[in-house]
Amino acid sequence: METIRKALVIIGGGPAGLAAGIAAREAGVTDLVILEREDEAGGILRQCIHNGFGLHRYGEELTGPEYAARDIARAAELGLGIRCGTTVLSVSPERLVTCVSKQEGLQVFEAGAVILAMGCRERPRGALGTPGTRCAGVYTAGAAQKFVNLEGLMPGRRVVILGSGDIGLIMARRMTLQGAKVLACVELMPYSSGLNRNIVQCLQDFDIPLYLSHTVTDIRGRERLEGVTVMEVDEHRRPIPGTETDFACDTLLLSVGLIPENELSRQAGVPLSPVTGGAVVDDRLHTGVPGIFACGNVLHVHDLVDFVSDESFRAGQAAAAFLRGEAPDAPAVEVRDGEGVRGTVPQRLHPDHDVTLMFRPAGVYKNAAVVAESAGVELARKRAMIFTPGEMATLPLKAEKLRGVTAPITVRMEVKENG
Questions:
Q1: Quick check: helix, strand or coil at residue 148?
Q2: Which of 231, 334, 345, 401 is at a distance of 20 to 30 A from 223, taking alpha carbons?
Q3: CATH number, domain with residue 212
Q4: Residues 204 and 218 in one domain
Q5: Neighbour count for residue 407 (Cβ, 10 Å)
Q6: Facing residues of 410 across strands?
Q7: How many CB atoms lie within 10 A of CB 224?
Q8: Which parts of 209-278 fold into alpha helices (H)?
Q9: pTM above 0.90, yes or no
Q10: How many domains does the chain have?
């Protein structure tokens, strides 16, 4: 078995891995490799043929493949080594990366630093516990997207979508444009988990009804799906008897959440957040294991690929600084979720420079403010007309406000209505 020394190994050749590799190379790291299990780089963007990508980064609307192509072209221009068709089997706390490919067989990379950029996966039917038969015709929304956009296959003609995540909303439009009849989009929560623009453009523009506070309670069919039962739920998310509605359909698409792909992170001993499902990191995207960084959807699920790229550029720069032997001047302080806030990233920060915190609101808050406080001292405040769980929120913290904050003082965030 061959062992190869590399300064930097990046796991994942999607938008996060590509951006991290580009930033690291531009920061002076020449000895690096990107390992990608698919046969082409670009990740999930390859099947996202709709537009809406790149507005923040480029100031123009691109499709997913167009967005990915720009990073792939830049990677080629910089001479980045991207090994496609390469599956990483394990990562050790000592930064030994074991992988396998048809071309090279089994290999071990001994890395000076590792960037985890494996992305996320969809939550499957088995995680829901929905009663009913195990018939054909039940797909995750992302699997259906791959069938339609990459393989030219139609999963079905009469469709119900469970969950209002962005992929599900986008597939409601895509299936309609391909000639299918989308009967309903059913959401367990009293609010959508997708971006508002997707609710408008993908449901309302096509007269597809959105049933909030509803869920699928039965799946019927022997060989192929024949129908589903939808019921309203109460404030405890329990079905309300007498509210049953039956839909005759041949396809059920699941858009019920994304999960960071962190099996390799666990192998490496990286501490994970029970809220985000991703690594616990500092403001340099450094995990709890020295020399291992995380970025993109493997860290926390983003709304926009533009923000994935921005975060991953910072991870690449931070890994380059680590390889140069640079370390933060100030000790890290903890960041904790306060009332109304879920999954703040980073969970630790060094109070020596500007930092932007990202989080998901725990509910819908109108005319509210998000506040960062430490030991009763307000560090930052940001007001908005509305905060919703479907859209990531940010809160910038200025270095001059952070300089007086020292460990073990905790930075807490709270959403306060009318705050």
A1: helix
A2: 231
A3: 3.50.50.60
A4: yes
A5: 12
A6: 334
A7: 11
A8: 263-267
A9: yes
A10: 3
Pure H helices in 53-128:
64-78
Cα angle: 101, vertex 119, 358; to 5 degrees: 155
The amino acid present at 218, given as its one-letter code, is D
User: Which two structure tokens, joined as six digits, stand for 277?
Assistant: 């499902």
Torsion of CA 102, 141, 393, 288, to 10 degrees: -30
> 3-14: buried (b, 16+ CB within 10 Å) or exposed (e) per residue?
eeebbbbbbbbb
Distance CA 309, CA 14 (A): 10
* Together in a domain, 298 and 350: no
Q: Where in 233-376 does DSSP place strands (E)?
A: 245-248, 251-254, 258-260, 292-294, 333-337, 341-345, 348-349, 355-361, 365-374
| Domain-embedded: residue 82 | yes
Is residue 91 over pLDDT 60? Answer: yes
Report yes or no on 96 lying in a domain: yes
Nearest CA to 301 out of 280, 283, 284, 276 is that of 276
β-strand partners of 357: 395
pLDDT tens for 212-261 read: 999 999 999 999 999 999 999 999 999 999 999 999 999 999 999 899 99
Sheet architecture: strand order including 341-345: 341-345, 355-361, 393-397
Number of Cβ atoms within 10 Å of the Cβ of 383: 11
Burial (Cβ within 10 Å: 0-12, 13-18, ≥19) of residue 21: buried
Helices (DSSP H) in 298-375: which residue ranges?
305-323
Would you say 253 and 139 are in contact if contact means Cβ atoms under 8 Å apart?
yes
Residues 161 and 255 sit within 8 Å (Cβ to Cβ)? yes
- The residue behind tokens 């640079």 is 326
Among 237, 256, 275, which residue terminates a domain?
A: 256
243 in the same domain as 133: yes
